[in-house]
Amino acid sequence: MKRHTSRTVRAGVAAATAGVTLAACGVGADPVLHPELSDEDVTISMNWWGADARTQQTIEAIELFEEEYPNIDVEPQYADWTGYWDRLATTTAAGDMPDVSQFDQIYLSSYAERGALLDLATVNNILDVSDLDPNVLDTGRVDGDLYAVPTGATTNGILINTTLFEEYGVEIPDTTSWTWEDFERTSIELSEASDGEAHGLSPFGGDSFSLTVWARQHGGQVFDENGELALDPELLISYWQRTLDYIDSGAAPSASELSETLGLPLDQSGLVTGSTAMGFIPAGQFIAYQSAAPDFDYTLANWPVDADTEEGFQYLKPSMYWSAASTTEHPAEAALLIDFLSNDTRVAEIFGLDRGEPANPAFWDAVEPLLDEAGRESLAFTEAMSEEVGDTPPITPSGASDIEVLLNRYYQVIIFGQSSPEEATEDFFNELGDAINAAS
Amino acid sequence: MSALGEFRNLSRSRSRLDTAGKQERSRDNKAAAFFLAPWVIGLLGITVGPMIASLYLAFTDYNLLQDPEFTGLDNIRRMLTDDRLAQSLQVTFTYVIVSVPLQLAVALALALVLDRGIRGLSLYRSVLYLPSLLGASVAIAVLWRLVFGTEGLVNAFLALFGVEGPGWVTDPDTALGTLVILHVWTFGAPMVIFLAGLRQIPRELYEAAATDGASKKRQLFSLTLPLLSPIIFFNLVLGLIGSFQSFTQAYIISNGRGGPSDSTLFFSLYLYQEGFGSFRMGYASALAWLLLIIIGAFTALNFWASKYWVFYND
Amino acid sequence: MTDAYPTTRRRRVARVIKHVGLIIVCLLMLYPLLWMVASSLRPNSDIFTSSGLFIDTFDFDHYPNGWDALAYPFSTYLLNSFLVVLGSVIGNLISCSMAAYAFARLRFRMRGFAFVAMLVTIMLPIHVLIIPQYVFYAQLGWINTYLPLIVPKFLATDAFFIFLMVQFIRGIPRELDEAARIDGAGHLRIYGQIMLPLMVPALATTAIFTFIWTWNDFFTQLIFVTKPDLYTVPVALRSFIDAQTQSDYGAMFAMSVVSLIPVFLVFLFGQRFLLRGIATTGGK
């Protein structure tokens, strides 16, 4: 068992004797600049979320690391997504954050701005990130400082179930230059051809990734550089209105059916069970969809456009990150582990595309020959899209980690007709704006 | 709060106690010190500290990662204008008021049926308890969505009668009702407690009643139910406390969100979202103490009412 | 001939109706379990499309796959859960019955206050207590041990069971212990030799419920135990699933079924003790 002594525990002991136990994490803890690796035996903990396959792969990578550095013992910790964040919040509050943690962009600012994460510039004598795509690397910065190293990044895309299209005899339009009109017309055709068995598309409406891409298609953005909500309300209204139109026209399933799969693991989504033929997904999840539904054949396409669509509306969204705790007693070893995970191509061979399409080009080359057909298709799509992507937008600011939950909630309110998109937009702005203000 | 009712019970027995004399009372005090020692150590050593901490946090702004900041009554002021709090209270009250009596009635009825020395009793009891064994796992969450989905079993059954059912757990109008049904369905725990209680009633009493010519119905109302009343009372009190804190069922069915559109936003779920989802643990703690006050008031009411219908042997 | 015995016939009909009714209810109760078993035998892609019990294609691989899918064989998690459960059951039986005896039979100072305090402790939701608890256990060096899960049970923190036993003891006629007291028995003897045997149904209920609830409890086991070799069954079951990647649901269902077997067995064999009331021990 690893214990963080230091001021945390002392403060804790004092507080506990008073009957009040409070958090006192590493805010203001002074990180050592350029710490040295220890020659002694060191134990660090590493924390991630994921299912069993990722667990096995990560443990394999850890073993490789321990072989390379025999004096470092890496203690694995893992949990499912919600359990992971509940536990991370608890342990961090108690000053007991694991040394290295996998991170997601919605929580990155929340933890970094409140001092829980190690400023990786302090360990750049050990951690080398120079090989990573600078555009992607920037998504690990909060207020200009690097707190997290992205594992990979992906664009959004449209997943198309070609099996369903063949089955119902509907032709897929040329997706290299399709318009929103083509998209809707094709969907309606498929819904009608299937006679209620399936619908053409699962609309967007409840996730920040698709909202961001939608906003960028129309020249807007969701958050600005200052961590403020900078979305034009009209864009949110049109985003939700689009979904309502799809439901009305029969391109999409009914509100009830849509609500049923909302926020569920992808194995249970309509795209996998075959109740919808097209949907908006992070392109990096293509392989997961394909292997969850072996009976279907999928393909990826870029979003449809309109005549006035802005160029470069797609962007690379980081899939996840590695970061270190500001309270870590072994910053050098933590940095070494992150360096290993980000630069050693043997890690790439173990992970494949599980943590996104690699941000490190060397990983890309190492992975490519090992991929199956779906994997290659996924990489090819991202490569093709790399021509199209624009600047990377700022990540979700501190206090806005609720955005997914909020979008989800208002999306349901709208599709069940309890509020109009206009009313919901107003409420959404109030609620998210308050949360951001409260956090800053 | 609930001291009221308890004190009343006490004072009833105190008259007897007075005759027992001082010596016995001091002996009782000593014995109590022994029997309650583990509980007192637990209370002071483990339970009270975190409770006081949460009470303090209720008056702070605490984002989990930075030190809490004392903000006085801000959290309470916030409650007054919090629409989602109002929604969660409404959901929780509806749920408690409908599901607790319903579940108890089903549990009691089945316990009475099973207690009558029925053939295959242990098999029936095991099977009836099954849903409570399953708990609230991921597996069960998946099942409910399939059974109560738009294309699910329930609707397939209704379709036989030409009725087109909604998506039971995903339609805001029916989601809470479905959760009530699911709650009633896990009546195993109170049923087992009822059965254990029924077993404590001496058979001689029934034999005597039967000799006196009391009908079965008469035996039920003037013998079984009064003697079972402490257990009914227990199930009622703990059922209320448990349902007010209901979390897991709504959590697994709505993926932790209380949806569709907040129709299953239980109080505990809201509190959890505020604390862990939005990093507002100060406000979550204030909510928790509001819940404690509500539950405490209901429990006190129960204890007060119990003197009219609960019959103790001692 | 039946006309000659109308009452017997009516009674027989009533009995048949009762059994038919019970069997229907039982089927409703059994359905989820059967469905879980069915799902554990289906290919993954069939699980989310079938709410029925019919299995198109059998897939027995989920059991061996699930057993070895995580970092440790599933037996590790079963064993860990057993340890936690065993400690919890023993702790609850001893500490709660002691406290209950005091509350039900002893007239001590501040009894009313103590009783209220006991009930109040179960009125706060765990989510606001977990962080202070974690800080506290971390100071004791108890994180990554089962102590935070077991020790509180030995200190009667489960007020549910105290209250349950109080209600049971109060149902036991006072003459029994008064008779013993006249014979010169102290409280310890009355508790051990008179109350405990008479409380067997309540003790059995406590044991069974503690077993099941601890076996299924996810949150505290997740938070206080972070080392994978110490993970318990509920934590292990969740680590099969990830929303953003494809997950092996079949394996998860298979292991869910496996993890139900011990609880079901405990209930099946434990419930005979529920029957031992005054009625069978011949209290008088």
From TrEMBL, chain B:
Keywords: Cell membrane, Membrane, Transmembrane, Transmembrane helix, Transport
Gene3D superfamilies recorded: MetI-like
Main location: membrane
Limits of the ABC transmembrane type-1 domain: 89-302
Pfam families referenced in this protein's UniProt entry, alphabetically: BPD_transp_1
Gene Ontology terms describing biological process: transmembrane transport
Compartment(s) where it occurs, according to its Swiss-Prot or TrEMBL record: Cell membrane
Database matches in CDD domains: TM_PBP2
GO CC terms: plasma membrane
Keyword Nucleotide-binding: no
Chain ranges passing through the membrane: 32-59, 93-114, 126-147, 175-198, 219-241, 286-305
Protein's membrane topology: Multi-pass membrane protein
Family: Belongs to the binding-protein-dependent transport system permease family.
Protein name as it appears in the record: Sugar ABC transporter permease
Species per Swiss-Prot/TrEMBL record: Streptomyces radicis
UniProtKB/TrEMBL annotation, chain C:
Keywords recorded for this protein, A-Z: Cell membrane, Membrane, Transmembrane, Transmembrane helix, Transport
Keyword field contains Membrane: yes
Residue ranges of the TM segments: 20-38, 77-101, 113-137, 149-169, 190-215, 249-269
One Pfam family, short name: BPD_transp_1
Location in the cell: Cell membrane
An individual GO BP term: transmembrane transport
Species this chain originates from: Streptomyces radicis
Membrane topology term: Multi-pass membrane protein
Name of the featured protein: Carbohydrate ABC transporter permease
Any one cellular-component term (Gene Ontology): plasma membrane
